[in-house]
């Protein structure tokens, strides 16, 4: 499948609940699927962020269609507060975050995200900073193994790193097909049917784009931007992302486990939570959706709502 198919679109809209006059942020614009649906669901205004200049350029037609209601901003979603401050926006009624890689990026061989195509080993969501090729050709073997293990949860990280370092002494590793071939040469086929290179490509992409730190920054800023009853809706696609989202929302809603009775922190009164979880368990895509769009099968959706301080619940400072 190629092109942009917004994942769990119906569920995202139901969770965000756009209303007339509302102010919303699509922090991962991509192909504009969520943005278009939000604008069609209510007479509201949407700001949309994407670090990829190509995504912003693609959105020009949509911005013209919804003139005055859609505002496109190029930048990282982890910088959303400063990006929005420049436009005078300090509060939002909802924020949507789709943490998956854009289909446009995956399906473009020149971007180097996928081993399904031969292309330059790039993987940058924007066009600045080191590429994946820079990492695999320069990192020491141990550091490279750490990246593959930490961000790809790859148990064979040491074996793969050793093979990469040996291969780059013969010639620099510059293409997706060569890197995938090196990984496959030292790993047996995965019983799940996934390509043996999957976890390593994920790890390098996350490292290149600093994705996990970016997610942490974005969650904190999104929560601060929400007005009373404003909602943060996040769709994640692998365990590393979902773990961060789950922990953040659980703590914001005051549902983190209490400290041990032996922990001095247990003597301090806990502040009233400023948010509530609207999804006690992550929502999953329907079988119908995954049959049509296999890329949706690993998606998890979680929603957090800011409470109204006027109702006696004080928000997190």
CATH class category name of the largest domain: Alpha Beta
> What is the CA–CA distance across the termini?
44 Å
Number of helices: 14
Shape: globular
Query: Major beta sheet, specifics?
Result: 7 strands, mixed
Summed up, the domain count is 2
Residue share in β-strands:
5-15%
Provide a quick synopsis of the model.
The protein is α/β, with parallel strands linked by helices and 317 residues long. Helices cover 41% and strands 14% of the residues. The chain folds into 2 domains: 9-104 and 211-311, Rossmann fold; 110-209, Putative methyltransferase TM0872, insert domain (DNA polymerase, domain 1).
3D architecture notes:
The protein is α/β, with parallel strands linked by helices. It has two domains: 9-104 and 211-311, Vaccinia Virus protein VP39 (Rossmann fold, 3-Layer(aba) Sandwich); 110-209, Putative methyltransferase TM0872, insert domain (DNA polymerase, domain 1, Orthogonal Bundle). Helices cover 41% and strands 14% of the residues. The protein has 14 helices and seven strands. It has helices at 9-16, 33-41, 53-58, 60-65, 80-85, 103-106, 132-138, 141-152, 157-170, 176-186, 198-209, 211-225, 239-252, 287-292; strands spanning 23-26, 45-50, 70-74, 92-98, 226-236, 275-277, 300-306. Strands 3-2-1-4-5-7-6 form a seven-stranded mixed beta sheet, with helices on both faces. Strand 1, helix 2 and strand 2 (45-50) form a beta-alpha-beta unit. Helix 8 packs across helix 9 and helix 9 packs across helix 10. The protein is globular, with a radius of gyration of 21 Å. It starts with 8 loop residues before the first helix and ends in an 11-residue tail after the last strand.
């Amino acid at each position: 499948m190629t092109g942009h198919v917004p994942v769990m679109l119906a569920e995202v809209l139901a969770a965000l609940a756009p209303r007339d006059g509302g102010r919303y942020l699509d922090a991962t614009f991509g192909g504009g699927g969520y943005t278009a649906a939000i604008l069609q669901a209510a007479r509201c205004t949407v700001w949309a962020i994407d670090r990829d200049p190509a995504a912003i350029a693609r959105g020009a037609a949509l911005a013209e269609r919804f003139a005055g209601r859609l505002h496109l901003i190029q930048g990282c979603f982890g910088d959303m507060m400063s990006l929005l401050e420049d436009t005078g926006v300090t509060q939002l009624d909802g924020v949507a975050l789709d943490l998956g890689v854009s289909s446009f990026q995956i399906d473009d061989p020149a971007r180097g995200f996928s081993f399904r195509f031969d292309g330059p080993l790039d993987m940058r969501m924007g066009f600045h900073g080191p590429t994946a090729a820079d990492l695999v050709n320069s990192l020491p073997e141990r550091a490279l193994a750490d990246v593959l293990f930490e961000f790809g949860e790859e148990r064979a990280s040491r074996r793969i790193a050793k093979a990469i370092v040996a291969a780059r002494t013969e010639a620099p590793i510059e293409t997706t097909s060569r890197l995938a071939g090196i990984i496959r040469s030292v790993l047996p086929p995965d019983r799940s049917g996934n390509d043996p290179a999957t976890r390593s490509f994920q790890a390098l992409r996350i490292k290149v784009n600093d994705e996990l730190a970016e997610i942490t920054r974005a969650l904190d800023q999104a929560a601060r931007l929400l007005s009373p009853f404003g909602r943060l809706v996040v769709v994640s696609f692998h365990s590393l992302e979902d773990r961060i989202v789950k922990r953040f929302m659980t703590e914001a809603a005051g549902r983190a486990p209490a400290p041990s009775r032996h922990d001095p922190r247990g003597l301090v009164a806990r502040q009233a939570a400023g948010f509530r979880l609207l999804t006690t368990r992550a929502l999953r895509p329907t079988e119908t959706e995954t049959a049509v769009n296999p890329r949706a099968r690993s998606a998890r959706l979680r929603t957090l709502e800011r409470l109204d301080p006027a109702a006696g619940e004080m928000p997190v400072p």
